[in-house]
Amino acid sequence: MNSIKDRIQQLGKALGRQHIPDNYTDYASLKMEYEALANRDVKQLQKESKKQRIQEIQGRSDLNSKWTFANLVEDSQDVIEAVSYARSFIAAHEDLSWRKSGAHMMIFYGDYGRGKSHTAGAIAHELIEKFEISVLYRQLSSLLDMRLFSYDFGANDNAGQKYREINQELLDVDLLILDEVCVNETILKKNAQSWLGNVLRQRLANHKNCILITNHNLVELENAIGRYCFESIKEYDTYKVKFSGPSRRKEIIPTQPESQAVRKTSGYQPNQVK
C-alpha cells in the first residue's frame, strides 16, 4: 500500500508537479513531534509545580534551613548511628503500606549541642524534598506558652484563635517534631500532661509520625511528661536514639584559664568604684 507521501507525490505529478518539497513531513511524524513537545512542557510544569509545593511546605514547617545531612558532621559513633537510623526511617516512606500501617515515633535524647535537632531537621528536609511530607517543628515550651496566653479572654491579639489554628495543625501535619521536651522542668503540670497526651493519642489514631527531642534520659522523661503521656508514646512504633558524643557548639568560656597578664593589659574593668 502506498504511503500518504507516495499518494501526494502521485497527485502532484497528475497536477503537473514533479516532486514533493524536501521540508514535507507526514502526519504521523508531525503527531509524534508535537506529542514529544507537549510531554516536555507537561513535565516542566509538573517540575515547577512540585518545586512550589515543596517551598510552601518548607515555609510552613518552621525548620532551620541549615539543618541538612550535608551540614551534619559525622565525627562520633553516636551521630553515625543516628544518621543510619534517620536514613532508614526516610527510606521506609517509599513503602505506602508502611506509611499506612501505623504511627511511628523517634525519640532523640542526650545532652545539649549533640546534634539532636540538626538530625531531626535533616530528616524533615529530606522527607519534604522526596515525598512532599508536611512537617511542623515546634519547641514544646512555646506551645505551652501559647496555650497559656490563649486563656486571656480579654486580650485583643487573637491569641486564642492562633492557638486553635496551631493546635489543629499539630494534629493534621504528617510529621510533628517537638523539641526541648521538658527542658529545665522536672515535671509538666497535670493539665499540660493531659493536653500533650491527647495530642499524641489523636496523632496515633490518625497514623501520624512524631519526633521527640529531649535532654532527659528515658527514665527522667517518663517522670517529666507523666505516665499518661508516656503510655501514649508506648503505643507508637518507637525508635530510641541516644546522642552521647561531644558538643558541636562553639565554646564561649575558654577551656584554659585566662592569664593574669592578659587581664592586666585590658583597658576596661567593669563596676569600678573610685
From TrEMBL:
Keyword ATP-binding (UniProt): yes
InterPro entries, A to Z: IstB_ATP-bd, P-loop_NTPase
- Identify the stretch(es) annotated as Disordered: 250-274
State the Gene Ontology terms under molecular function.
ATP binding
Q: Name one Pfam family in it.
A: IstB_IS21
Q: From start to end residue, where is composition biased (Polar residues)? A: 256-274
Question: Keyword ATP-binding: yes or no?
Answer: yes
Q: Which UniProt keywords apply?
A: ATP-binding, Nucleotide-binding
Boundaries of every IstB-like ATP-binding domain copy: 65-224
| Superkingdom per UniProt | Bacteria
The name under which this protein is listed is: ATP-binding protein
Species per Swiss-Prot/TrEMBL record: Paraglaciecola aquimarina
